[in-house]
Amino acid sequence: MEGSVIRTLIRRFRRDDSGVTSIEYALIAVIVSVAVVASMRTIGNSVIELFAFIVDSIALESSAGTDDG
Fold it and tell me: Is the dihedral of CA 55, 57, 59, 65 positive or negative?
């Protein structure tokens, strides 16, 4: 009796594919997250460089303006 219950549970487990979809979605989410993080790191460095350039330009303009006075 117990062996047939275990066999029935194993058969049911093999046929059940409801978890497969959630695993696929989880894998897609991980891949998208990795892509977003990688692109943000690249874009982030470019933005930091851009803001540093802007700050330096403003600092140069403001120091050049005070020398005239």
Answer: negative
d(CA 32, CA 52): 30
Say what the pTM is.
0.47
d(CA 69, CA 55): 22
Using the 8-state DSSP alphabet, how is residue 69 labeled?
Answer: -
Q: Residues 2-11: pLDDT tens digits? A: 778 888 888 8
Based on C-alpha coordinates, what's the Rg of the chain?
30
Q: How many CA atoms lie within 13 A of 39 on its CB side?
A: 6
Q: Is residue 48 part of a domain?
A: yes
* Domain membership flag for residue 8: no
- On whether residue 34 sits in a domain, the answer given is yes
